[in-house]
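Render this sequence as a predicted structure.
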Amino acid sequence: MNDDQTQQFLSRPRVIRRLWWVFSLVLALTVMAQGVFYVKGYFTVDSWFGFGALYGFLCCLLMVLFARVLGRLLKRPRDYYREPDDNA
């Protein structure tokens, strides 16, 4: 498959819906595995059920928000790398 066919495949609503279901199932199974396997936490909080999933989600959310703020702070105008006019 070339890039155009892959892009079309991943933009289909049916494929996106299936991917959401698969990823949600994997996440649910991962969280449920904590009910089977004992997790010894070093602190009280990290031994709670589903703490790893919640902690990972919140850290990812904070990284995305931080990247958005950082992107706005470091943004340059569109013509930032344009050659200056000699006539000015």
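Summary. Residues 38-78 form one domain. The chain has two domains: 1-37, 38-78.
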